Amino acid sequence: MILGLTFALQFFLVAQTFPLSELFGSASLLYIDNPFHEYNVAMGAAVGSVGYDPFFAAGRATGFALNHSDRLPAFLANILPSSLTAADIWKLYTFAVSLIASICLPLTLIILRFERNAIAISAALGLLLWWTGIFRWFHTAGMVSFIFIAFASLPFTALVVRLLTQAFTKTLIATVALGLVAAFLFFSHPLFPLPITVFLIFYLALNRQAVHWQFGLTALLAVAAIGILLNVGWLYYFMNPLEIQETFDLYQRATGGDLVIKSLLGIWDKANGARINTPIALAVILGFFLAYFSSQRRLLLTYSGVGVFWLLYAYTAGDNDVLGKLTQPNRFTTVAYLFLALPAAVSIAEIFCNALQHEKTWRRAISRASAGLLAIGLTISVVEMGREVSSANIGHYGQHPPQARHQGEYADHILSFLNTNTDNSARVLFETSLGRIHDGGHIAGILALKSQREFVGGPYVQTGFASFWDGKAFTKPIAEISPEKMHEYFDRYNIGWIIAHSEKSKRYFDQLNGVVCINEWKQLKFYQVQRLHSFFLAGAGELVARDANRLVFKAVLGDSITLKYHYLPGMQVTEGTIDPVFIGDDPNPFIQLRGASQNVILTYR
After folding, report:
1. Is 148 in the same domain as 273?
2. Burial, 534: exposed, middle or buried (Cβ in 10 Å; 0-12, 13-18, 19+)?
3. What is the DSSP string of 108-122?
4. CB 461 within 8 A of CB 434
5. pTM for the whole structure
6. Where exactly are the transmembrane stretches of this chain (predicted)?
7. Residue range 458-468: average pLDDT?
8. What angle (nearest 5°) sits at the alpha carbon of residue 75, between those of residues 70 and 81?
9. CA-CA distance, 484 to 2, in Å (whole number)?
10. Is residue 398 in some structural domain?
11. Which of 46, 149, 266, 325 is close enough to 275 for a disulfide, judged by CB 3.0 to 4.6 Å?
């Protein structure tokens, strides 16, 4: 009953803000990272697990085995009917995650067999967390898969508890089933094992007497083995990347003890705090102070400890370069408050129950005072939830409704320029924006798909050597690149046009010989590079066609051909041999052909 009502309420709220009418409509999710994920979904549909993307960075590896934050929807795009577009699948996935997440907290307490009042309160806390704060921002910004596994990790931990504490005769089927769930969630996002591992450490340390050690740990190891073995495909490429990606990833790495305090007090600032955080933290503290949690004290202490751990990790681990890059620690504030919400729900239920007692005791007095404080905090969060759902012109944590929108004016103007002034004979040097000046999102991938033009650099900022973002080109500040070196890059990557937005880049190209500004609109300047277009570094020929996993050339001349496309292991040519060859300062090799015929078809696997 509680799960059904929670699901129905979430469906109603999401249907208003999405809106439901655009779930299969022509609008797309275009806010922040969503266009980038839609592009990856499209590539997953085209190439499967691993393939060759000719549209960015002079050829790059792509596929759902490589794109970790959108692996599941990209996989679905590859197996579902082609009548469903990448935009459709990404919208469906985003919508579905919002519904699944809404029932994860109450489902966890149901599995752990808590009483009905605590389950109902956990459902309310789950909805408030979703709509007020960083959860809402992450979801509307495109970090859907991480939010999915953050919520899903809670019922998974409850199932792990049941597995570790039940009799051996019941563990075989449960072990296999839980292993399959683990594999699915690990496939959905590579960070899934982290909250589970930390939970296990706390649980095994604090609940030793409840664990069937011999059978429970054997079953747990089997679950881990199933989860890993079923993900060997993408794990292989994670350990053995097909190309070098020189990134400068500083996302979600703010650190400082003050951020922990700000987060707990609901101060947004760099801490991304939300008002709901304060009553959750207060409820957990009051629960232990007033000696609640009597029957499940150790279990709830486990969830509280895990929550505190991730809260501290979120604002300290960013100082470590490895942890900062691999995990983007600030995102784990979501995990922290989800784990804290479970003991908070039990505490709130106990506090309000004691507050309603007729007998005059010190516990009733403290409970009534506590209930009053919590009621104020929760009421503020309910008001914030109403504001977040509203389409009124007021502040929102996430994207202002609606989420699904039609193409913006920047995309319209850029596509018009590409269709009018460019062709497939050369590439476009496109300056991406960390601040998302292009309609508020990372739209390069969508531009490439709609225009069928090739771009240098990537579909996102800070991706690989052949990149161009916010005044930096080919991994260097653009002002540090000499005119001779820039023209060398123009030739190596067959750049025929430039679209720039930063003042540094526009100033540089305005002064560069051989580059002419042919259009200007708002923050953008459009340039033409005055050079002969060719996709051949050595030899000659004409590009006839190119799409995912395929390059086609005709009138090819030369005994040894070097193409202005990157090489990937697994590429094949119809005749002759294909080898990697390194050119200049690019860490990734280009394609070299020997003994090729006049008509060349290159394919990937």
Report:
1. yes
2. middle
3. HHHHTT--HHHHHHH
4. yes
5. 0.94
6. 92-112, 119-138, 144-165, 172-205, 217-238, 274-292, 299-315, 335-353
7. 90
8. 125
9. 68
10. no
11. 266
Number of Cβ within a 10 Å radius of residue 122: 29
Query: Domain range holding 78?
Result: 2-389
Which residues are CB-contacts of 354 (< 8 A; sequence separation ≥ 6)? 290, 363, 364, 367
Separation of CA 433 from chain center: 17
- DSSP bridge partners of 52: 61
E-assigned strand segments in 361-514: 404-405, 427-430, 455-456, 468-469, 472-473, 476-477, 495-500
Q: Which of 529, 555, 585 is the last residue of a domain?
A: 529
pLDDT category of residue 7 using cuts at 50, 70 and 90: very high
Does 332 reside within a domain? yes
Residue 249 pLDDT grade (very low, low, confident, very high; cuts 50, 70, 90): low
Of 427, 437, 446, nearest in space to 490 by CA: 427
Phi, psi of 477 (to 5 degrees): -55, 130
165, amino acid identity? T
**pLDDT surpassing 90 at residue 242:** no
C-alpha–C-alpha distance, residues 484 and 52, integer Å? 31
Give pLDDT tens digits for 263-278: 999 998 888 899 999 9
- Same domain, yes or no, for 425 and 487? yes
Q: Please indicate, yes or no, if residue 401 is contained in any of the structural domains.
A: no
